[in-house]
Write a structure and sequence with these properties.
The protein is α+β, with helices and mostly antiparallel strands. It folds into two domains: 155 residues, no CATH class; 218 residues, 3-Layer(aba) Sandwich (Rossmann fold). 27% of the residues lie in helices and 26% in strands. The chain is built from twelve helices and 18 strands. It has an eight-stranded mixed sheet with strand order 13-12-11-14-15-16-17-18, sandwiched between helices. It has a six-stranded antiparallel sheet with strand order 1-2-3-6-10-7. A two-stranded antiparallel sheet has the order 4-5. Helix 2 packs parallel to helix 3. The longest helix has 19 residues. The protein is elongated. The two termini are 43 Å apart. About 2% of the residues have low confidence.
Amino acid sequence: MSHQLISRSPHLLSLRSEGYNLDTKEGYLLVLDVPYVNAECQVVKGVLVMALNLVADVAGQPSDHTAHFIGDRPCDSLGRPLEEIINNSNQNQLLPDLVVNHYFSAKPRSGNYADYYEKVSIYVSILSGQAQAIDPSVTAKTFAPIRSETEDTVFAYTDTASPRAGIGMPTQKFKGLKVAIVGLGGTGAYILDQVAKTPVAEIHLYDGDLLQQHNAFRYPGAVPFAALEQGLKKVEYLQKVYSQMHRGITPHSCMITPENVVELRQFDYVFLCVDNTAARAQVVRELIGTRTSLLDVGMGVHLFNDTQQVWGMCRVTTLTSTHYDHADRTMPVTENEAEDAYRSNIQIADLNALNAVLAVGMWKRLCGFYVDQCQAGQVTYATNLNEIGNSEERS
């Protein structure tokens, strides 16, 4: 992947053709073998690291004028630190295997770099120019042999959002996880929309229903009319759409039954988005106390005919391997028409999306991506109060 990305990007390919030793790693460009001078006036080599700004996996104009550096503090030919470009010298772990030592800021006269060829050339010139004052033979153009291995990623194209935001390390917490989404109605589809943008290893979709016209009005994005005409299952349609971004999506065109519910034990996290109390109870019984964490979403929406206004509530309840005693009192696992959130059969796209985002936020806290000071096992939101409530603190 990394070398394909370089070959598709004309400005990066020009740098490589001139002999620069380039590599890419999860949204970062690495320029290796850059000569510079250390505090002892020795000529040594370091690595420039820059966040990539990509358009269809082709490097475009750099998003800013900064860069990271791996090595000692760079100096001029007399051993004085290059303060004109060094913003700070704080060690920073960008990725599990990418630790940088310095942060540079060198703004060009135009204010912005036109492309990565210009940005790399200027930074290398600043660093290697001092080294060449000591040893005129040194150069960053080493014509190093090109490694043939590919970048291991579940994405169909490079995630440049995480490096650009500086959250490459927290995002690593999702790697290797296996996630299932049971029920791909409005809420489940929005959960998929969010989870597909994380580097989880596998996303399994369980739903046996056909994609119908009413689904289009509470799904993410715009469902093409042609897709409705094809008579696809929901999971088939969603896998087709989201596999354009994430390679690890597997559709299961079936409902969860007593015969296949055991399959859910293989996942690290299960999002349960069903409007069937018996099915919910079945999944809870199967997963309670296991290593699999369950995130159950529910939504109650009611129309008041006298005022022609809508009242709604969203709920996310989490059961983990050590926190599940609250299931009977917080989740609808017994038939009760007065409490069944879906009896009215009213679902609204913005509440579906909100319920999904609340569930994904809870999941990210469980994964350790977000700081979690409340340790809530349940989150609710009511439209009439416009308030989010936390309860069932995890011990």
